[in-house]
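Troubleshooting log. The previous structure file for this entry was overwritten by mistake, so regenerating from the original sequence record. Sequence copied from the archived sheet and checked twice against the printout by T.R.
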Amino acid sequence: MRSSVLGGFTVVEVLVAIFMFGLILFGIMQVFEPTTLAYPSAQRTINTQRSGRTAMDVMAREIRMAGYFPENADKTDENDQSNAIEVATNAALAVAGDLDGAGSTSTFLFCLDAGTLRRVHGPRGAASSYSCRGGNVLAERVDRLAFAYYDASSTPLPNPPTGAYDLDGQAIGTVPSFATTTERGAIRRIVMTLTATEAVPNQPSQTYTLTSDVRLRNP
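Regenerated output below.
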């Protein structure tokens, strides 16, 4: 019995050709599939890192200007208002001054709320200015936000450093007291650390850590 002929090729030859083409196509897909899956993973990681760096830049710029009070320009020292560091804990920081160039003194709180890095901007002495919820979002998917404090000699505050600490016993959630400012008043340098994780389907989670070393301009 003869095999059928299709345009000069037998059915067997056509089937073999289709099978070989399928194998080649499968091999090509195996090569390009990991690259295709890796691209969105890399893109998401880049976006997350960019968001984290932007947040760190905002915090560093404004924290560096803590204690800047232009409304006192008619005085000998335009930065003579005390208590620029209002709350300093291992996971949150509240500073005061005209940090955004608005022309008035305000409180700026940087804190972590359920994986979201927030910046709270409000009037000094108002309870809402020291509450993390409701603040503007600086970055999402943040696992850890940490602050370390140093005096003019780069000695850690407190010394020796403890696990969880609230300088001068002050924490966010309430209006801070300035009956004692020994530790907060000694701060001259702040090191910030931000750790975030980007989860990507079918890929290992991508974790990165950013650090910024800030020296205060208006101690």
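The chain has one domain: 52-215. Archived copy saved in two places this time.
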